[in-house]
């Protein structure tokens, strides 16, 4: 059973079609003359001029795309499945050669020795994964120089400067690894990943707001997302009210509105968001009264969708219910919103450990256990709101 998602898609743009034509070619290009320093593609080398981007990348999930969570799966996937995962998790053939025998050809190993002379300590998504093809550097338009000024300076820039591609500021650039292919598996009429399509049909797209505007503000290379509490909070607005009904019950009306998210929240089938309502006594002890779950719940075999309660951009998830109050016990009501960024992975990994644990090698089992622990630790409380119990008016 493959736990990873196959996410190589087709693209309309000719540059992007070539740029993300997997498997990528090696960096060998005899027509380009570079010094040894310039041809060294280690991210640490890029940091000599791009220190801020390097430091941001180090803390990003792109820099952790080859970790325990994917490495343990190599033992249970076919060669074809494993290599398909690497198209996005480790795009360069030189980095793939570190973790896949398929890419340990003479040509690729020769390119790896030349362009990574100190070796590859981290075969994840690197600077060159997005910015370099055949020893030609690509990037977005300069924010400080005109096209003519940049052309004049190119000859004096390291690695012959770079070719400007506006696609680096387009959502389509991200589509390759964040959208299922058109021919990909569907559940209940929806692909496993549709974040680009979700965005494409929104006011965000109509206004020209791209993925990069939110996930790479000021060209920041941390690519914040569902795992970052502050980032998520900025896109949501919770509101609620308590009223006492004529028969003495408490009516709760709660609304979580998507105010700054350009796709469904949460996107993909991996995260879940729990809206929980508690009654709290004078000692601070809480009792769960009601729970509502946001997300797309799919079985671990990726063959059946149970529900999809995600919020579309600009809309809300509403929860309304009544309950009978024990006035002596409950003084305050709490609304807590908890995010589990890796819920589907946790469920899948727990099942794999339970059913396959004894069949895995010791190293692979340890990788699975470590990844499972890491993903369980990713949960966080997004909001906690409290309201006093409405007073009972005298009759």
From TrEMBL:
Q: Which domain of life is it from?
A: Bacteria
Database matches in Pfam families: Cytochrome_C554
Cytochrome c-552/4 domain ranges (all copies): 45-131
Listed name of the protein:
Cytochrome c554 and C-prime
> Where does the sequence pass through the membrane?
none
């Amino acid at each position: 059973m493959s736990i990873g998602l196959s996410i190589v898609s087709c693209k309309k743009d000719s540059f992007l079609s070539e740029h993300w034509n997997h498997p990528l070619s090696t960096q060998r290009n005899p027509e380009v003359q570079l010094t040894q320093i310039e041809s060294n593609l280690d991210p640490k080398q890029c940091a000599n001029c791009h220190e801020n981007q390097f430091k941001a990348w180090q803390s990003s999930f792109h820099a952790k795309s080859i970790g325990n969570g994917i490495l343990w799966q190599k033992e249970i996937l076919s060669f074809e499945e494993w290599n398909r995962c690497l198209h996005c998790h480790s795009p360069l053939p030189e980095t793939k050669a570190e973790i896949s025998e398929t890419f340990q050809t003479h040509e690729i190993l020769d390119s790896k020795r030349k362009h990574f002379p100190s070796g590859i300590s981290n075969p994840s998504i690197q600077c060159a994964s997005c910015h370099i093809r055949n020893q030609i550097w690509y990037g977005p338009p300069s924010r400080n120089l005109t096209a003519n000024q940049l052309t004049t300076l190119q000859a004096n820039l390291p690695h012959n400067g770079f070719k400007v591609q506006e696609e680096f500021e387009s959502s389509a650039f991200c589509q390759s690894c964040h959208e299922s292919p058109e021919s990909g598996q569907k559940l209940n009429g929806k692909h496993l990943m549709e974040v680009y399509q979700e965005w494409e049909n929104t006011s965000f797209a109509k206004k020209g707001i791209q993925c990069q505007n939110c996930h790479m503000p000021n060209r920041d290379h941390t690519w914040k997302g569902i795992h970052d509490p502050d980032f998520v909070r900025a896109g949501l607005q919770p509101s609620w009210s308590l009223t006492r009904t004529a028969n003495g019950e408490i009516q709760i009306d709660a609304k979580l509105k998507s105010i700054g998210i350009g796709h469904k929240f949460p996107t993909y089938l991996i995260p879940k968001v729990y809206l929980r309502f508690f009654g709290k006594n004078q000692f601070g002890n809480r009792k769960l009264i009601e729970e509502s779950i946001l997300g797309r719940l799919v079985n671990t075999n990726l063959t059946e969708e149970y529900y999809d309660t995600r919020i579309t951009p600009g809309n809300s998830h509403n929860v309304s219910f009544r309950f009978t109050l024990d006035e002596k016990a409950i003084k305050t009501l709490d609304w807590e919103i908890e995010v589990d960024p890796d819920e589907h992975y946790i469920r899948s990994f727990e099942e794999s450990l339970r059913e396959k644990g004894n069949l895995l090698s010791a190293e692979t089992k340890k990788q699975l256990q470590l990844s499972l622990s890491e993903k369980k630790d990713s949960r966080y409380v997004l909001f906690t709101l409290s309201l006093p119990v409405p007073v009972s008016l005298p009759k």
